[in-house]
Amino acid sequence: MAEDLMVEGKKLMNLGEYDRARDLFNTLISREPGNAEAYNKLGIIYARQQDFEEAKKYFLKALELKPDFSSAASNLGNIFFEAGDLDEAEEYYKKAAVMDPDNPVPYNNLAVIYKKQKKIDKYVSFYKKSISLESRRQSDYYDSADMKESNKPGIGKYWWVLGIIIGVIMYFLLSRR
């Protein structure tokens, strides 16, 4: 039952039906007060509606309930980033990366901060890390899909294209200093 509420709430959230999704997540919390994911989802809804103070409360509650909740830490970093507090955003993105070192999102978010701060070496390092982790995640997806080799998409032959694109982007970004 709780899982059904979560699935339906996520679906409504993705459709932009925030009031209905909020109702479902609040119902879920009334049934399971320790459900950190429901608090995190409520925080996302408030953030999407530009109510950053309310969003912050829900992300903090999610982290209180589940101190190693990488997604909530990263989302809290996003709140600070939106507020222009790059130091606090960086702190939460770093926490998120420690909590889930295989998640590319916090590394990408750190790269964005370092780019804004014109710390190009750090930017490149964290951006490469995020690309590497995302690539590994995609590879793991195809490996775990239990697909026959002949049915797998031919992504291997496109790696050189991806390399060229990344090279051009890096050249463009570094030459704009």
From TrEMBL:
GO terms for biological process: protein O-linked glycosylation. TPR repeats lie at residues 2-35, 36-69, 70-103. The chain crosses the membrane at residues 158-174. One of its GO terms (molecular function) is protein O-acetylglucosaminyltransferase activity. InterPro entries: OGT, Sel1-like, TPR-like_helical_dom_sf, TPR_rpt. Keywords: Membrane, TPR repeat, Transmembrane, Transmembrane helix. It holds the Pfam family TPR_16. This is Tetratricopeptide repeat protein. The lineage of its organism: Bacteria, Bacillati, Bacillota, Clostridia, Thermosediminibacterales.
